[in-house]
Amino acid sequence: MQPTLRKVIVLSLLLPSLALLHRSTTAQPRLCNSQSRGTAIAGTLGCGRAMTTVGTHHQLQNFTANHDYRWGTEELVAGLLWTADQLGPLLGKDRLAIGNLSKEGGGDLPETTSHTSGRDVDIPLLMANGEGQHIPSYYHHFDKDGISISHGGRYRFDVARNWKLVESLLQNPHFEIDFLMIYGPLRQMLLEHAKQLGVAQPLQDRAERLLRRPWAGVRPHDNHFHLRIRCPAEDLLSGCRDG
Prior knowledge:
CATH topology: Muramoyl-pentapeptide Carboxypeptidase, domain 2
Order of helices and strands: HEEEEHEHEEEEEHEHHEEH
Helix content: 25-40%
CATH class: Alpha Beta
Largest sheet: 4 strands, mixed
Radius of gyration: 19 Å
Strand order of the largest sheet: 7-13-11-12
Strand content: 15-25%
């Protein structure tokens, strides 16, 4: 085989991987506005925005990055970056873990019935060790008392930091929340914590309304928040539907 031909073949094999690496580490210029179409369980995503794998205060989970489930509306991605920046001082040297958004163009994901239109994201629960020190989130499951089901119960549901996460999402300037789903006992722990802190009543009321227990037939969500945002106003004209 001629050297020139060999180089061409090698480059053709490497280019897709190099493109994905560039996408994962570099914010791409916006040439159009994102469009969420249809519902969260039967929709598509036009001109989605990709989240970088690693940022100043966020990091995609390995599964999410490897499957390229990093796509969302402009509002969702901008809002997640804003929330990560708000939580940065609380996380120290760690970053806010971000799970699955949507795939490029939207549509069905094999792992879930939703996440089709760029308005859903999974956020692993923040956790602490026995001394109350924050440790990176890896989708640990928690029981009704906020103790990790795996790893011999060494980890705890970090109520204080998870409330700060919820508070940031509720006050996010980039989107309106449709719901924030979490396991019922953990939801109650968050609401009680907010009450003990003396959080303003309107914010407590919003938290109680938007923090949702999983409905029948849905996984317990004892290891992550499922955030869904409402349709951006402009996307309603493109057929976006809340719910």
